[in-house]
Design goal:
By secondary structure, this protein is an all-alpha fold. It is built from five helices and no strands.
Length: 120
C-alpha cells in the first residue's frame, strides 16, 4: 500500500471511531429521526434546529463517504488486460533467465570431464 493509502486508512479509522462516539453521545429525543415520527415537534421536521452534535455528525458522515471512496480508488486492482500484459512480460523474463541457467548448468555439469582432461 502506498503512503497515500496508509494516510487515508488512518484518517478513515479515526473518522469511524469519532462517528461512533458522536452517535452514541447524541440524545435520542426530539432532534433525531425518532423525534420526527414520534410527533413531538409541531413543524414538519421538528421544532428545533440542528444542534452542534448533529452538525458534527453530518460532517463526519460526509468525511466517511469521501474517505471510503478515496480508499477504493487508491486500492483498486489493475484491469485484466494490464495484468495479462504484465504476466506475459514476467514470463518472458523468467524464460530468458531459465535458458541462461540451463546453459550454465550444462557447462557446470561436465566438471568431471574437464578435471579428467587436466589430470592427463
Amino acid at each position: 500500500m502506498s503512503a497515500i493509502g496508509i494516510v487515508l486508512l488512518v484518517a478513515f479509522i479515526i473518522v469511524c471511531v469519532l462517528l461512533v462516539l458522536l452517535v452514541v453521545i447524541q440524545d435520542n429525543g426530539e432532534n433525531g429521526m425518532g423525534g420526527l415520527m414520534g410527533g413531538r415537534g409541531t413543524a414538519a421536521f421538528g421544532s428545533h434546529s440542528a444542534s452542534v452534535l448533529t452538525k458534527a455528525t453530518a460532517v463526519l458522515v460526509t468525511l466517511f463517504f469521501v474517505l471510503a471512496i478515496g480508499l477504493a480508488i487508491v486500492n483498486k486492482k489493475p484491469k485484466a488486460k494490464e495484468s495479462l500484459e504484465a504476466t506475459a512480460t514476467e514470463m518472458q523474463a523468467e524464460t530468458q533467465t531459465s535458458e541462461e541457467a540451463t546453459a550454465t548448468e550444462t557447462t557446470d555439469s561436465n566438471w568431471w570431464e574437464s578435471s579428467e582432461e587436466s589430470a592427463e
